[in-house]
Amino acid sequence: MTQPARILVVGGGYVGMYAALRLQRRLRRGEAEVVVISPDPYMTYQPFLPEAAAGSVAPAHVIVPLRRVLPRCQVVVGQARRIDHARRVAYVSTHATRSEGGGDAELRYDELVLAPGSVSRTLPIPGLAESGIGFKTVEEAVGLRNHVLAQLDIASSTRDVEVRDAALTFVFVGGGFAGVEALAELEDMARYATRYYHNVLPEDMRWVLVEASDRILPEVGAELGRYAVRELRGRNVDVRLETRLASCEKRVAVLSDGARLPTRTVVWTAGVRPHPLVAATDLPRDPHGRLRVTAALRLDGTEHAWAAGDAAAVPDLTAEKPGAECAPNAQHAVRQGRLLADNVVATLRGGEPREYRHALIGSVASLGLHQGVAHLYGRQVKGYPAWLMHRLYHLSRLPTANRKARVLSDWTLAALFKREIAALGSLENPRAEFELAVGTGRQPDQ
């Protein structure tokens, strides 16, 4: 009896999850088995991370459990360390392999779908590795929320002017969607929270956005980008264009324009790079380190290997400029994941794959509660209508009716009741209280 083909999907993000969803729907029973390797047992809907950080949406509602939505797939929670496509083997580290103390598990496959996504693109800036805060995961969003609220606690309980100023200065590096939306949402939350601190006023805080280029939110166009700058500056946000972070050692952020900002908060959102796994494969890559694929999402010159999303250089056949590539965003990733799955099924059945073609419908961005910008179908929208469009657009794209209903209920409750402003920093060290009780831990900071 012929064994069914094994399709290995590496990555549980947009491409990985949507490809696996499509595969389990289209494959006939016994035709193939689908194995999904993901470092987390869930997919994170990243556009809602700023709202999760601000407390408008519960963190658990911006993730989609993979095992629930992929009942016909085998989900392996682990990290693919290396892929030897010549032998059709992936080397995977899981909780079990680490507990057993052995080497990585070898997982054989017939078809490979490589969608590991991206990681933050960092630079060799002094102090960044030690004190920088990322903003790509739900854990980082929750941690940043707790951190910001903890800074208000520090500022309200110290008489040291230098400590207070550093606690109330928040530096965000990167003027793309992640940096602008995270700053705007957290500034809204912190400004609201100050009403519960008798000695901290909104004007005591300093929010700084550092962007290396001459504008922010380039995806929405130059005019809306300028509007976003005016809107943020109108809220006393210090937007510094054509400026870089030079160092952030000893709780001082030094900028390329000479400014020195004492701060306890440096949030790094200045771009992404392909996941390190890409470099640990024998698959073709472009000069930027991304996987080189054809318009059919197949690895260039390689059989039985497919890729899409942030880690792949996908040709944009709808662009006017020859040689253009698709932007690394969710809009492309979701559609690429679905087409990739269709192409895998087609080749398994002896058919021909189709090429990926999709023209972007536009972009939306939130600038905090009731403010936003949107550029959709060639039309520009600002203010409250754009903010509403931002919410409705991302709600429509959020996977599963279950998650849509939960996020909608979060928004309804947030509109009816006051914000939650309690920090749960102890979540980052849940055993601290027990260690203190048994005498092995240190006295908690006051």
TrEMBL record:
Residues 6-336 form the FAD/NAD(P)-binding domain. It comes from the Bacteria. Signal peptide: none annotated. Keywords: FAD, Flavoprotein, NAD, Oxidoreductase. Gene3D superfamilies: 3.50.50.100. InterPro entries: FAD/NAD-bd_sf (IPR036188), FAD/NAD-binding_dom (IPR023753), NDH-2 (IPR045024). Pfam families: Pyr_redox_2. Belongs to the NADH dehydrogenase family. PANTHER family: NADH DEHYDROGENASE, NADH DEHYDROGENASE-LIKE PROTEIN RV1812C. This is FAD-dependent oxidoreductase. It comes from Streptantibioticus rubrisoli. The lineage of its organism: Bacteria, Bacillati, Actinomycetota, Actinomycetes, Kitasatosporales.
